[in-house]
Specification:
The protein is of the alpha/beta class. The strands form 2 sheets. Strands 3, 4, 5, 6, 7, 8, 9, 10 and 11 form a 9-stranded mixed beta sheet that branches. Strands 1-2 form a two-stranded antiparallel sheet. The protein has 11 helices and 11 strands. The chain is globular and about 60 Å long. It has helices at 34-42, 62-73, 85-95, 114-122, 162-166, 182-188, 198-208, 234-246, 254-269, 274-282, 291-302; strands spanning 2-4, 7-9, 21-27, 49-56, 76-80, 100-105, 109-110, 128-138, 158-160, 179-181, 212-224. 39% of the residues are buried. Residues 1-16 have low confidence and may be disordered. It folds into 2 domains: 2-224, Spore Coat Polysaccharide Biosynthesis Protein SpsA, Chain A, CATH 3.90.550; 230-302, no CATH class.
């Protein structure tokens, strides 16, 4: 075995026979999960991987643990003051050597054949800017969650264009399984450092640039559901999704898309965060009321 850009590559698969894939793990306060995430990359069946790990100013035990793991496995590690995920990803991409880029959550786990499967699929498909796949949801202890939490495990293959994604016509890609073509990333200028919901922005931007997003109908990662998941922060989600949609405000269905999203968030938070739900409701004109609006109102009053 030979040491190659951060960890080991089997000699029977020379680098010139397979494209280099850069996996970027940007971590913030995920000491409890980060080792499993890193090991799931190191244990991939695909050999030609460059692993860049960045700790973005964690306040927990992450830096010490990452230094230990780096000494053991030899990946590229950078410790930095907090800069935010989008800026961190862009800086990592600028020094990455791979033509396929995989931003990967420091709390998620890849299945062993994930990279090999996606690389094989992306070959010969220059029209595909992003390859994604299904996920299996696990809890904070790594236990596979029940059937109700597995909505994205058994979905069939789908190809998405911009309208499929923006108008929510098909189930979208899973953030834990994104593989991005570097050419597509460069065409859209990378991640937007003022938008903190990075996956939604980059998916829409790459699709808007004319690329397809292909989502494979198999599970290639385990997504960890835990108390600090971004999607559980209602205020954060509303602000950043709407900020992302505003970039595409020239789309003829822009207003309807925003109102559809507001109605969904009203229903979701009507019995979780009533002040937030009332604020959402105040921003939905009566002409955009629908069944979700009425169900949200019922929950606001009676739950």
């Amino acid at each position: 075995m030979t040491l190659f850009r951060g960890f080991y590559m089997h000699a029977e698969h020379p680098a010139n026979e397979s494209p280099l894939v850069t996996v970027i793990i940007a971590s913030y306060n995920h000491a409890r999960y980060i080792e499993q995430s890193i090991l799931s990359v190191i244990n991939q069946t695909y050999d030609n991987i460059e692993l860049l790990v960045i700790d973005d100013g964690s306040k927990d035990d992450s830096p010490r643990l990452l230094q230990q793991l780096q000494q053991q496995h030899g990946f590229d590690l950078k410790l930095q003051a907090n800069q935010g995920l989008a800026r961190t990803l862009n800086q990592a991409i600028a020094r990455a050597k791979g033509n396929l880029i995989v931003p990967f959550g420091s709390d998620d786990i890849m299945v062993p054949h994930r990279i090999a499967t996606q690389v094989a699929y992306m070959q010969g498909k220059p029209e595909v800017g992003i390859c994604s796949a299904n996920i299996e949801t696990i809890d904070q202890d790594g236990k596979v969650m029940g059937a109700r939490e597995q909505r994205n495990r058994n979905l069939p293959f789908r190809r998405l264009d911009f309208d499929d994604l923006f108008l929510d016509r098909k189930p979208g890609p899973m953030a834990a399984t994104l593989m991005l073509r570097r050419e597509a990333l460069e065409k859209v200028g990378g991640f937007h450092d003022q938008i903190r919901l990075e996956d939604v922005y980059i998916e829409l931007s790459i699709a808007h640039a004319g690329y397809f997003i292909d989502v494979l109908g198999e599970v290639l990662a385990q997504y960890r559901d835990h108390p600090t998941n971004t999607f559980k922060n209602g205020r954060f989600m509303i602000d950043n999704v709407l900020k992302t949609y505003a970039i595409f405000s020239d789309h003829p269905s822009y207003e309807q898309v925003c109102m559809r999203f507001r109605n969904s968030m009203l229903l979701k938070y009507a019995n979780r965060d009533k002040p937030l739900a009332r604020e959402i409701l105040s921003n939905i004109p009566v002409k955009y009321w629908n069944r979700k609006t009425l169900r949200g109102l019922w929950r606001l009053v009676w739950s």
